[in-house]
Amino acid sequence: MRRLVLSAILLVATISTSAFAEDKKKDLFKGSFAFGFSYPLVVSASLGTMLPLGKEQHDYVIPETVSLRLDGELGLGGGSVGAGVFVPTGYVAVSLKAVRLRTWLLTWNEEKDRTFDGGVLELALPSPHGGPKIGIGSFKDREPLNGTRDKFTYVFLGVGW
Question: Is residue 12 part of a domain?
């Protein structure tokens, strides 16, 4: 029994020593978030993930290199799923995404239960706590109905990256 306890202590000491000796590993994926006001989603929040494509020198929360991104946004007026690219440039981060948007519940000047496809350009001043973010996009209805608008401009004002 004593040999077993001594072996276990030696094994734990060896594992912990090698774990502390290694450099901290950088996360493969980085998170993204936003909260704000938008047309037609009214009030919305989004979460997503980003995959940096280049080597990063620091383990920052926000990617330092060009990254692929995938986001989901939920709001009172609908929800969306988007995929695209995130490009940090000095103090400003630029994102360009292809987005599918669905309206529901409470919308501003749009019909409920409609699906739209489009693209969104976002500009953000990223910080770990979320800096100002604006977005503008163009969407087209997947199935236009008679007497209703089949295109609209998306606008987002909030915080995040």
Answer: no
